[in-house]
Amino acid sequence: MICYSNECTETRQHFTIMHEIGHFLLHKNNQTYPSLMQENDYTEEDQIFEKEANNMAGMLLANKKAIQ
């Protein structure tokens, strides 16, 4: 399940959805809640996973002109 805030812009909602799909596709073997969800800072590994999910979301949402 992917949750997002209805108070965010539609663009932000799309990014959040793609970011979470990125985690699912890229980190299938590491489907645990990051330490941040447990009220701690991200671990070094979590930070890498977040960057990877952000990059994937950005690529999935980029238009043709942005990619060129």
Structural class: mainly alpha
Based on CA atoms alone, the radius of gyration comes out at 13 Å
- The tally of beta strands, per DSSP, is 0
Largest sheet descriptor: none
Morphology call: globular
Number of helices: 3
Provide the β-strand percentage band.
Answer: under 5%
> Distance N terminus to C terminus?
33 Å
Q: Return the string of H and E elements.
A: HHH
Low-confidence stretches: none
Mean pLDDT: 86
| Helicity, as a percent range | 55-70%
Structural summary, described in words:
The protein is mostly helical and 68 residues long. It has three helices and no strands. It has helices spanning 10-26, 44-61, 64-67. α1 (10-26) packs across α2. It is globular, with a radius of gyration of 13 Å. The chain starts with 9 loop residues before the first helix and ends with a helix. The mean pLDDT is 86.
